[in-house]
Amino acid sequence: MPRLICALAAAILPAIPLATPLAVAAAPAGGEVRATLSSVTPWESDTPGHGGYSGIEVTADGRRFFALSDHGTLASGALDREGARLTGVGRTGLWPMADTAGAPVSMRLRDAEGLALASDGSLYVSFERDPRIWRYARPGARPTALPRHPDFAGFNANGALEALAITPDGTLLTMPEDPVAGRFPVYRFADKRWSQPFAIPARGAFKAVEADIGPDGRLYLLERRLAGPFGFATRVRRFTLGETALSGEQTLVETRPGTHGNLEGLSVWRDPDGRTRLTMIADNNFLAIQRSQIVEYVLP
């Protein structure tokens, strides 16, 4: 995170929000599936601790959400909609995250990045510094630490576990932000043990920042690229999950730098009209020149 904040000093101009570019379509790679921008909704609040949101999970009805801050807090909120289209955001709760001893998580260890909502309502959180995953039975609860894969200790301090997803049967998938030898190794936690069954090819300078399992059972990966003074570019790819391999790679969203802010969180769900929505949240890095916002794309 410190490395990213320093880089943001060169990105002041694109961080100032422009008019909401509704009905803009992401440029697909190679004629692949096209996702269309549905809404860009600011999320503003004067409450201390608001900001730094790096993860989001939307409930199945699209009306409620949890948001994770990399400053060690977890928020809940309501999503106002006209039909399926997002029109407003409001917070309904804010909790400091506890460590495994029940105390507030320390500044050194609070770099929470990935969020996954299990079918039983529990929340899994991945941390970038001191790479690890904790399970919270409910917001504000004392977490349980999962065992760590030996590889986690070798990840870059500011390029470790950001992406985190959970399947309907409770299997966890995670990967480092930084690629390893041109790939993002995917780590799977099932039956109380880790494996590393496959990897995602890194393409260009994009880094992996979040993942989710969609209602179609496929793995969705949110990636970002910092393009200096031009701001951030965003990409979303999806893959068909197999036991030992991924297949069917498709690029759903790929934006020009500066189109959106620092999108770090992703939740994939199906609206009442049967369309798949990609709900993403931007991390304002607690900088006045950036805003927290929720961005939604819709698939045909």
UniProtKB/TrEMBL annotation:
Alphabetized UniProt keyword annotations: Signal
Domain Phytase-like residues, every copy: 50-286
Region forming the signal peptide: 1-25
Superkingdom to which the source organism belongs: Bacteria
This protein's name: Esterase-like activity of phytase family protein
Organism: Mesobaculum littorinae
